[in-house]
């Protein structure tokens, strides 16, 4: 991907002996265009507030990310420190602090210390190189067990354009470790408004479709940054065919990253796709999908490899959507196990359902029989390890 | 409690070697007044449908309850079989089938077999005795580890009136075992409309305040039955002082039973009270309370005895209520741990909070600083055993 340099370092703010600070720079003084989608939690971390303000700037030069301390619930002092981090990066890059975005993940309620960030900053800028995305993906991890990267390429106006991103999970929030952070970069030349449009619609079909435990962190941030270095004619018309191509590439990367976050969900042993079809509208489809995907009884059944159609239809039934039980049909990997208000009888059905649940990837389809809208949610199971990770995190 | 007889038997419909069938009879041909509150799940079990229909009758003679099979998701055949159970009880008691209520708990999707019920029915009626509520409480258990009973007495019009009840939990639903069933009987003479009023308002402050895992079963039923045998002047005016006294006694029994259900929640090791105060209205208070009470991250923190204020404020922040983080204050057993957007500093605070979390009963108070409305939710923690019970239930 052209027009970017990245670097990572171990600043030691909280972790010891591992990279915990990452920098993504646009490799041109003109900077790039950027867009962001942030947590809807009323408790918003200081770096999220800072990003919202700095995104007002027409040009963004860099994203600075630290792992270990989330700088959330830290009051005005937290904002001041987030700003100091942006200033340190700006000084080292000879760029305005207002052109630097900051993201943090880690313990809630602790102040970040800008001093080690400042100390590492010059070295970070000097060591920045193209195509070191894996270092960034590693430096932003908290309870994640694997780094998460994805990319796609597409031809636009005769130029090869790349969209690439990194993300971290892996519970939605924790104590308070784990937040959803994703940074998607592209060398496409694209107007901010167009980038913003595709980021928002892509988020709806990716990060807004996943759930590990239903919690939304104080720090959740999805940021897109475009360098324009691919040299394609600037994408200025959202509805234009090349803009749509770009949007599809961006969405593909977002969906892939989102799935990787779920697969690496805390304690997860299964990857589950909950597809709701036949809904009266997309909102209802989404409500049912997420109610099923977040039900602890459903999630423990997946962990136990128990093809428990009862828990799934019951979770759907309490989702607040005016279902008609007689019209609902449930499928496991294409096999109908429930319809017309009762389970499909037969030992063979039970046997095949059980076998579907023994696989690592499970597809559940629930047809509400009411309309034509649909929604797919991605989730994971609830295991002993989920409880273990989250019961003993801080000790 | 006057005017009732009860009995229990092992009919062997699904369990072996334990009582699984219970009968609560009003000991008079005139029967009693009754009221019910039922699941809001769109998948409603056949006995719930039957109860709704039979409650149209002005006089109720009995409640017949079976454990082991829930008769949910069983289509029209399920209703026919529930009705056969009511008929069997009616015949044995020489009462109309329409004066018998039926409740079932257990596996979803399986048909009940009315045959063993019919076989036991005459013996059940003949063996019925006053004051055998403990047998009823035991016969209706599924994953419950202890029988749940409660009672209260109050003087009305110079007569001693008793309200007594039994309940079972212990997940909200399961595979499908465990449903919330509660039967509250009283010897008060009370008009149906008055009984209905106090049952509904009492349910709001008891069973609608508890959550084990956020799931609402297909079978959840709360039924009140009044024999009138205490001989008090009939309670006919909801707003009258004696009606209010009666309502308070009923509510006390409901709250006590509801708390017992939570304490015996699947895998629970802690009993947690989540009190929201300073809310703009009761609906917002309830939304925040239940969002916190259902958060897996909050519940695993309780299990881990981790005084994790971060997870609690974050769950509150995502509840969809327009909070101002700077006005929120959080207390553990009366100790303020968070206010003005940041944690209260100090090793002493942390030490005392940690000690509060080591107790079996934990009180959490969250002041939203917005108004005067409040709500209290009761919940339990999420343990390894919750996962174990629910991952391996059917095997």
Describe this structure in words.
Chains A, B: InterPro entries: Arg_biosynth_ArgJ, ArgJ-like_dom_sf, ArgJ_beta_C. Chains A, B: The record marks 105-106 as: Involved in the stabilization of negative charge on the oxyanion by the formation of the oxyanion hole. Chains A, B: Substrate binds at residues 142, 168, 179, 266, 390, 395. The structure is a homodimer of 395-residue chains. Chain A is α+β, with helices and mostly antiparallel strands. Chain A has helices at residues 46-54, 75-93, 114-127, 133-139, 192-204, 241-263, 282-294, 296-303, 309-317, 347-358, 384-391, and strands at 4-9, 21-26, 33-38, 62-69, 100-107, 148-156, 159-168, 181-186, 210-211, 221-226, 271-279, 329-332, 335-339, 342-343, 361-367, 373-380. Chain A contains 11 helices and 16 strands. In chain A, helix 2 links the parallel strand 4 and strand 5 (100-107). The first copy, chain A, is globular and about 70 Å long. The two termini of chain A are 41 Å apart.
């Amino acid at each position: 991907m052209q027009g970017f340099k990245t670097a990572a370092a171990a600043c030691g703010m909280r972790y010891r002996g591992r990279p915990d600070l990452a920098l993504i720079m646009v490799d041109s003084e003109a900077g790039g265009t950027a867009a962001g989608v942030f947590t809807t939690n009323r408790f918003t971390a200081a770096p999220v507030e800072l990003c919202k303000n700095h995104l007002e700037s027409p040009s963004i030069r860099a994203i600075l990310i630290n792992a270990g301390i989330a700088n959330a619930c830290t009051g005005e002092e937290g904002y001041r420190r987030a700003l100091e981090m942006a200033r340190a990066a700006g000084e080292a890059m000879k760029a305005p602090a207002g052109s630097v975005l900051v993201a943090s993940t880690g313990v809630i309620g602790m102040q970040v210390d800008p001093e080690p960030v400042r100390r590492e900053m010059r070295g970070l800028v000097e060591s920045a190189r193209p195509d070191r995305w894996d270092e960034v993906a590693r430096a932003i991890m908290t309870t994640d067990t694997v780094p998460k990267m994805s990319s796609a390429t597409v031809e636009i106006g005769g130029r090869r354009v790349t969209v690439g991103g990194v993300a971290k999970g892996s519970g939605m929030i924790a104590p308070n470790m784990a937040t959803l952070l994703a940074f998607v970069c592209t060398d496409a030349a694209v107007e901010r408004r167009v980038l913003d449009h595709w980021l928002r619609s892509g988020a709806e079909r990716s990060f807004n479709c996943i759930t590990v435990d239903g919690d939304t962190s104080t720090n959740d941030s999805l940021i897109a940054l475009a360098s324009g270095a691919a040299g394609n004619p600037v994408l200025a018309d959202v509805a234009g065919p090349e803009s749509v191509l770009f949007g599809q590439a961006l969405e593909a990367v977002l969906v892939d990253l989102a799935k990787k976050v779920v697969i690496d969900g805390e304690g997860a042993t299964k990857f589950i796709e909950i597809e709701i079809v036949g809904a009266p509208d997309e909102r209802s489809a989404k409500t049912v999908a997420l109610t099923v995907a977040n039900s602890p009884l459903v999630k423990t059944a997946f962990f136990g490899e128990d093809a428990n159609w009862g828990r799934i239809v019951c979770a759907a039934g309490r989702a607040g959507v005016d279902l008609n039980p007689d019209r609902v049909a449930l499928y496991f990997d294409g096999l109908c196990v429930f319809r017309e208000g009762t389970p499909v009888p037969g030992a063979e059905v039970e046997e095949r359902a059980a076998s579907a649940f023994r696989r690592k990837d499970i597809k559940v389809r629930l047809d509400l029989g009411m309309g034509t809208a649909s929604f797919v949610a991605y989730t994971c199971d609830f295991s002993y390890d989920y409880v273990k990770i989250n019961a003993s995190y801080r000790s």
